[in-house]
Amino acid sequence: MASPIEPGSEETDPLTPFVDEVLDRLSTALAALGGPLSREVLAGQLELEGGPEGEIAFPTHRAAAAAKKAPPEFAAQLAPRISPSSRLRSVSAKGAYVNFALAPSELTARTLALALGRGGRYGHRPVVGRPGCVEHTSANPTGPFHIGRVRNAIIGDTVARVVRAAGTAVTTQYYVDDMGRQASLITWIWSKPRADWPAPVRAAVDGAEVPGEKPDAYRGRPYPAVSAYVKEHPDAQAEVAAMIRAIESGAPPPLHRELTEAILGGMLASLARLDIRFDEFVWESDFLRDGSVERVLERMHGAPHAVREANGAWAIDAAGYGLPKESTRVVFQRADGTSLYVLRDVAYHLAKFARFDRVVDVLGQDHLLHARTLNALLAEVGTSRTPTYLIYQDITVPEGGRMSTRSGSAVWLDQLLAEAVDRARREVLARREDLPEADTERIAEAVATGAIRYHIVRVAPEKPVVFRWEDALSFEGRSGPFVQYSYARAASLLRKAGADGGPYPFDPDRLSDVEELALVRIVARFPRTVEYAARSLHVQSVAAYAHDLADQFNRFYHAVPVLRSADDERASRIALVAAVRQTLGNALDLLGIARLETM
RNA sequence: GGGCGCGUAGCUUAGCCCGGAUAGAGCACCGGGUUCCUAACCCGGGGGUCGAGGGUUCGAAUCCCUCCGCGCCCGCCA
Questions:
Q1: Which bases in strand B are touched by protein, i.e. have an atom under 7 Å from a CB?
Q2: What whole-number distance in Å separates Cα of residue A173 and Cα of residue A281?
Q3: Which of A110, A180, A225, A377 can pair with A201 through a Cys bridge, CB separation 3.0 to 4.6 Å?
Q4: What is the CATH number of the domain that holds A438?
Q5: Domain encompassing residue A454
Q6: Which pLDDT value is given to residue A214?
Q7: How many domains does chain A have?
């Protein structure tokens, strides 16, 4: 129920002057009554949208205790000491609470002025401070995405958008693991003529290939069979090991980079359909090439808890780092002198810290222990910094268990996209049979991808998710298409009003219907919602907000005529609709869901 | 066994960081709404021991402890 009240700016947040005034006048009144509380404590106690009686509520329990009075009695004495003003329509006591009803005229005027005046910047704050980095997805380039990985991409991309909006210059990074066993297996198999492939690998590929298929599907197809085969065959294992050493020594087969890039390109093409793109790709091998792994190794050898094992391997005695008992010895360099993943990750993170203040890593829960060992190693090299980990739970299948390529239980992103577009197309055709085919396709694609993104981002990352087609492809209720539809409705209204581009003159006193005021209050909440989501990384609150706004807009739409209303109200209602369209559109942008002017 | 996460209506979930008024939604179900701005919509209804127990508190879904159930991790893999 409590909604955090953070300091904002009058230039970006319509609620700021109201909250400031409540805090000021409450402080004065409390001091006079003998229950003084600091401004910080007060700000923590206030509730936005507190209850049925007012938009800002103050529970008096603590102040009453300080004044040694019963809360209801205290509230009854406190409320009359604060007189209404141009910003506060009324101040009233109810039970233990003092409720502040905001003056609708002032609230509406400020909210519409900011939403319309700032346009695409409404809900955004000016860039301040040093830049930040969000690393997400970073899937091994070994084949197509399944939707488990897509949870990482959607959460990560949304976090980047939201943190950026809240005033941090964010760079998104995809860490490409082109080293180690997984990518090497791909290069190993494709280095051989098809005729020399082991029989089980050929069997896994033959007949499955489709002309013109994406490179991630084509080049990645042998991977599961190769992985299984090599595990069982020491001679193949030795060949792969030799290849890994060649890669680490800086002399990978020429085909290696080419294959990795081709597969990655195919994977990224699918993400691009979800409007997920990356500012930078960081190749793991770069840290070997530029010597930073070597430098980290030197520092690690002299680290406070570095130990040399009998066979020459190096480890950290991490007993003091709170790791599970069995993991207190963290090996970072093999006996043969090659580095381990976590060590290269140290080099990567030192590079991040040099450029960025806020560093967020989006990781599956299976990487949690890795994250904690990384923290331990970062401390050992002498930095006090650690990334902020955003850990999400796996997506499982109804039969139980994680998605796995081998068991055939995986649901592929491309498959999900195809199915979603099919279904969206049917929905479009059912309503708009007159539409040119290109428009039908464009809308179907937007609805399909909007449904998928919303479905993933609306749930808190730490919740386990069981994949069900009917949930993922929902176009109603709490869904992306519901928000898109509401946006299209607002856009349609403005088109028909001949008011597509503004200006939008309005008289706040003409917007006095309960549905109008409720709508204004939700629009006014947007900047605080974004700020909270960026600070807490709870991006699901932006999804919830978009639904709340769309929901209230639809209620307004049914209850209040716009185009058919009398002239003096019409202009103001059009301005309100324009503010809603803008805010809804900005929220969709943050969620990476396409705005549709018509559906 | 240890570490971490999750458990809220038949199903999916918000709220938990930072305790506060009657725990919000969506799906499904039941009953209504389209000569009228897009029915992917709206209105009404039923449905909750917030996993269990204990503690702290004026007050607990929220904080602490114990237990139960489920998931993941515990490699000189990444």
A1: 1-7, 12-22, 24-28, 33, 36-43, 58-59, 61, 71-78
A2: 6
A3: A225
A4: 1.10.730.10
A5: 413-591
A6: 96
A7: 2
